[in-house]
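re: that chain from earlier
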Amino acid sequence: MSKTEENLWAAFAGESQANRKYLAFAAQADKEGLTQAARLFRAAAAAETIHAHAHLRALKAVGDTMANLKAALAGETAEFTTMYPEMIRTAEAEGHKAARQSFTFANEVEKTHAALYQKAIDNPQGMEPCDYYLCKVCGHTHEGHAPDKCPVCGANANAFFKVD
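^ sequence. v structure.
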């Protein structure tokens, strides 16, 4: 990989992180009633997404849907088999309970994502139309309808929202 490609991946990561951070900042500003600050954070977040997508285009890192599904499956699988288990062990060793819970929830949800991607890979043309619901507590992704109780964190059905 060339130094420019390394830089593009690093820039992509930084822009992606800034987007998520600024959206979290916007939500906090909204809670505090600081509407204009929230708008500013959302505008900057959208700009960071534009930058991140431009970096991906420069890398030619978006393929056809089957290639993208396979890349997503590989990424999710690496997260729940390697990345998060090590992070969970470290958080446990350091006694960081909030980090351990956050990593554990994410680890379980990544398994679901991998299964959903595998299902799509196995039958991309035959995917039945369905809605997806996300748990606001842990991010669990559920097909069809919101479950009565989240299988990952135990939150009740009102913690789920439909993805448009």
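Residues 3-59 form a domain with the Ferritin fold (CATH 1.20.1260.10).
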